[in-house]
UniProtKB/TrEMBL annotation:
This is HTH-type transcriptional regulator TtgR. Residues 3-63 form the HTH tetR-type domain. Residues 26-45 bind DNA. It comes from the Bacteria. PROSITE patterns: HTH_TETR_2. Coiled coil: none annotated. One of its GO terms (molecular function) is transcription cis-regulatory region binding. Pfam families: TetR_C_13, TetR_N. The keyword Transcription regulation applies.
């Protein structure tokens, strides 16, 4: 039962943190959204920081599953690289899109919370590592991977600020140009 309660609390906190911002959400709001007692909430999470890290862990899984699902559906190595941007386009089009939860968490808490900063960095490094594997599979140079990763990161921030999905298509077009140039060498 505890795993179920814990998951329910994380889901409720994730929704609140993502839509309102971490700093704007107190534990009472999480308690109310999760429909649990404050005692049950603190039994699962000794502090708000523990809950924030659990939400980021959930977000990491969502991101990883989403990106790898989009990429794994494609067999052509070049198109697998571009599938990352196709995934972004679908995500940016979701009604509740508010940007990257990791970028948002880092902007709010990164300077004051070393655990959050470390978790965000680990998430971003994991994505860069994944893109590097895709680049290697496509026969591209190692230098292409950080270029493609930064296009994806920039697209996330731009889409959140601009409130449109255009950044995904723009990043995809830039990625295609970079990929084609790198693979032609």
């Amino acid at each position: 039962m505890s795993d179920e309660v814990r998951g329910h609390i994380v889901d409720a906190a994730d929704g609140l943190f993502y839509t309102r911002g971490i700093g704007q959400v107190g534990m009472d709001a999480v308690r109310d959204a999760a429909g649990v007692s404050l005692r049950a909430l603190y039994k699962e999470f000794a502090s708000k920081d523990d809950l924030i890290l659990a939400v980021l862990d959930k977000r990491h899984g969502m991101w990883t599953d989403g990106v790898t699902g989009a990429v794994d559906a494609i067999s052509d190595p070049r198109e697998r690289l571009l599938a990352v941007y196709d995934y972004l386009a679908g995500w940016f089009d979701e009604a509740d899109f508010r940007g990257c939860g990791f970028i948002n968490a880092f902007a709010e808490l990164g300077a004051a919370n070393p655990a959050v900063a470390r978790t965000v960095r680990e998430h971003k490094i994991d994505f860069q590592r994944y893109v590097a594997e895709l680049v290697a599979d496509a026969g591209g140079p190692a230098s292409l991977a950080p270029q493609l990763a930064i296009l994806a990161e920039g697209a996330q921030t731009t889409a959140a600020i601009a409130g449109t999905t255009d950044a995904a298509a723009q990043a995809r077009a830039a990625a295609a140009t970079l990929i084609d140039a790198a693979l032609a060498d």
